[in-house]
Amino acid sequence: MKLFKSLLMAVVLAPIFALNGTASAQESDNHGVIAEANFESADADGDGALDRDEFKAFINANAEHNLGRAKQIRRFRAYGRAFSRLDADGSKSVTWEEIQIAQSGE
């Protein structure tokens, strides 16, 4: 159980949408475009932010495209922890800007 918790924390606390270090610049750009399209698609109410249900749809879409750590978040059902980590301002929603900030490690 301790190993599982350690792995879960490593997955969640790592940059959530970090790209593979061997990816070319073009692949990185493509991944960013896909992730942004997935964000827009998951934003069902079109308010520019994802609530918890929309965020889960976003992670699942990213997992289908093998983006970043989304598959691990889905596998471990760590949606809530990932959401909380990204919701920097505590607004109970995650914006694209918050995702980009987390990705850049700021």
Task: Name the average pLDDT.
Answer: 84
Q: Name the helicity range.
A: 55-70%
CA distance, first residue to last residue: 31 Å
Shape designation: globular
Spatial ordering of strands, largest sheet: 1-2
Q: How many individual helices?
A: 6
Structural class: mainly alpha
Q: Element order, helices and strands?
A: HHEHHHEH
- Uncertain runs with pLDDT below 50, 5 residues or more? 2-15
Percent strand equals: under 5%
**What's the multimeric state?**
single chain
The major β-sheet equals: 2 strands, antiparallel
The tally of strands reads 2
- Gyration radius, rounded: 13 Å
Notes on the protein architecture:
There is one protein chain. The chain has helices at 2-13, 25-42, 52-64, 70-75, 79-86, 96-104; strands at 49-50, 94-95. The protein has a domain at 48-106. The chain is 62% helix and 4% strand. The chain is globular, with a radius of gyration of 13 Å. It contains 6 helices and 2 strands; from the N terminus they run ααβαααβα. Strands 1-2 form a two-stranded antiparallel sheet. Helix 2 (25-42) packs antiparallel against helix 3. With 106 residues, the protein is mostly helical.
